Amino acid sequence: MGYIKLACLVTHVWGRSYWIGSYLNFSFARPVVKKPTFLRLRGSFEYEIQSWKHSIPLFFTTQGFDIFRNREISSGAGAIREQLADLDLRVLIDSSLIEWKELGEERSPDNENEWEDRKVGRRKNFLVRRIELAKHFLRTNIEPEWMVLCLLPVLPPELRPIIQIDGGKLMSSDINELYRRVIYRNNTLIDLLTTSRSTPGELVMCQEKLVQEAVDTLLDNGIRGQPMRDGHNKVYKSFSDIIEGKEGRFRETLLGKRVDYSGRSVIVVGPSLSLHRCGLPREIAIELFQTFLIRGLIRKHFASNIGIAKSKIREKEPIVWEILQEVMQGHPVLLNRAPTLHRLGIQAFQPILIEGRAICLHPLVCKGFNADFDGDQMAVHVPLSLEAQAEARLLMFSHTNLLSPAIGDPISVPTQDMLIGLYILTSGNRRAYQQKRINFDSPLWLRWRLDQRILSSREVPIEVHYESLGTYHEIYGHYLVVRRTKKEIRSIYIRTNVGHISFYREIEEAIQGFCRAYSYDI
């Protein structure tokens, strides 16, 4: 990679406002004096002789003042580099931590001075940010003065092409124009410093500012206010514009590229699936697990080489589906829905073969992905290494991620049509007896086990029906108790419907299965 040797130091625009400001802890417009200078020495004389008074003005008007200024006075990026080079990050961390503790002790009791508390809070936040930044630089072995540039890297030609179009005209990338602007201003500054000995210092400083502005525009056009435009009033694309965003260099070319052992399809609802299972279409599954299929066919002597195994897979012989079922039982898959905003954006599932071309997903896991079934797409990946498979099974399976990692609330809860279905399933219809039919919502009396306590000692029956044999029926709101003459309970009936019975049976089986699995783990 080539580079441009700058005639003056420039600060990097990405770190100027946050990193450099956090380290130095003062405004860039404030002058800084770090050592005794000739200017400060002059003020220490109590009695000035006549010759001294006449020599000072002469000194500031001679050519030797340029040497003195370069040695004693720093401005711009050079002054910032000197300040950053003098920093000891470990001392900075210790001093910031001590100040943070002192500020915590100085907080006013009972919020007597709200303005002072806010001021202390802002200062403490700044100190925390400063400590974290210093620790990051120490951990990555980065020196603070590296944020000031003396060499400007130049992108390879492939990333800033020049294309010849019809008519012999050349179409160039915006980066080339911004580089040309930097080179032109840098060469002008070199000429001022080398060829012209009598150049005023103000002109040199002005040209240094122009070089800094050109570098800022190259890195981030528009950060200094009005962006640079071409002859057609179109804003030039800077380096930041090329790499940031969804269409940037990283997300479009490097991070978003296709990878092996992955696929993508639309998701549809699979209510009959278990929470930890997903349905993979045969077309996707046979491509994802093709290498495992080839190995299985050769190991079981259904194919003598890779070519024959691939031909069997293309013809989709019955033995291929049998081996594919065996392979999928031992390999979990990862489902991901972009954008991946939190940990539950990628979860592991046990795949099963299904017909069609869409991925089937249990509706309860949609909230973790922030997905719904209106055309959303998901990517499926196959973990290859043993470490990745173990992580998927132990940490990433959907039935082990039932709580939100952010707030701890349940995340696999029924919503929308699931709630409507549960309501319809468990709602009652009092007219079912008159219609002479039994549906899911038809009320009926279900005999209850005597060992299950549903009676309340304070509850009073609505009605009591006595029979000739001495037994009597106590009718409550949702249940019926049949007693003998000695108040001994003979039987209990609860008022329910088929939907309630089906719903609670599923809950009971799920709880029993969980208890059995938990007892096995212990």
Automatic annotation (TrEMBL):
InterPro entries: DNA-dir_RpoC_beta_prime, RNA_pol_asu, RNA_pol_N, RNA_pol_Rpb1_1, RNA_pol_Rpb1_3_sf. SMART domains: RPOLA_N. GO terms for cellular component: DNA-directed RNA polymerase complex. Keywords: DNA-directed RNA polymerase, Nucleotidyltransferase, Transcription, Transferase, Zinc. Pfam families: RNA_pol_Rpb1_1, RNA_pol_Rpb1_2. Belongs to the RNA polymerase beta' chain family. RpoC1 subfamily. This is DNA-directed RNA polymerase subunit.
